[in-house]
């Protein structure tokens, strides 16, 4: 029985020691951004979100909410010329691509705003190191530091 008690005590001591080491490493790895800086980035993200939402609305209103007849400007009830239809279809496809890109940006902005709420904004999701302030100023809604992003892009090219 004495050996079982010793083993249990050793396990408890080891768990406590590991927990302390992990806490120290985590505290060193993740330094939270000051609240004032976080507020500036939040304000910038909200402005970006508003701009992207207006762009999506503009794309929708100008291109996607019109019928082919309205888009071509044809007032007659006759069939369209095939080339005109192809051009109109291309314009719609192009507008859909633009809207899709804007939606992706909108989702990443929402993710960044959520990271601000959680207090993890400015920390790379891959390596958990702080993202450079210059990178955050250029691309506020980014999730990754520059080195992790370049690694991800290389992996996606393959």
Present the secondary structure layout:
Layout lengths: L1 H28 L5 H30 L3 H5 L9 H37 L14 H6 L7 H12 L1
Helix pairs in contact: 2-4
Description:
The chain is mainly alpha-helical. It has helices spanning 2-29, 35-64, 68-72, 82-118, 133-138, 146-157. The chain has two domains: 1-30; 33-71 and 79-157, Four Helix Bundle (Hemerythrin (Met), subunit A) (Up-down Bundle). Helix content is 75%, strand content 0%. Helix 2 (35-64) packs antiparallel against helix 4 (82-118). The relative contact order is 0.10. Residues 18-29 have low confidence and may be disordered.
Based on CA atoms alone, the radius of gyration comes out at 26 Å
Mean pLDDT over all positions: 77
CATH-assigned fold name of the largest domain: Four Helix Bundle (Hemerythrin (Met), subunit A)
Shape: elongated
In the CATH scheme, the class of the largest domain would be: Mainly Alpha
Number of helices: 6
Task: Report the strand count.
Answer: 0
CATH architecture of the largest domain: Up-down Bundle
- Which class of secondary structure composition applies to the elements? mainly alpha
Strand content: under 5%
Question: Span from first to last CA?
Answer: 59 Å
What low-confidence regions span 5 or more consecutive residues with pLDDT below 50? 18-29
Helix content: over 70%
Give, in order, the helices and strands: HHHHHH
CATH superfamily of the largest domain: DksA, coiled-coil domain
Main sheet attributes: strand count, strand direction, barrel closure? none
- What number of structural domains do the residues give? 2
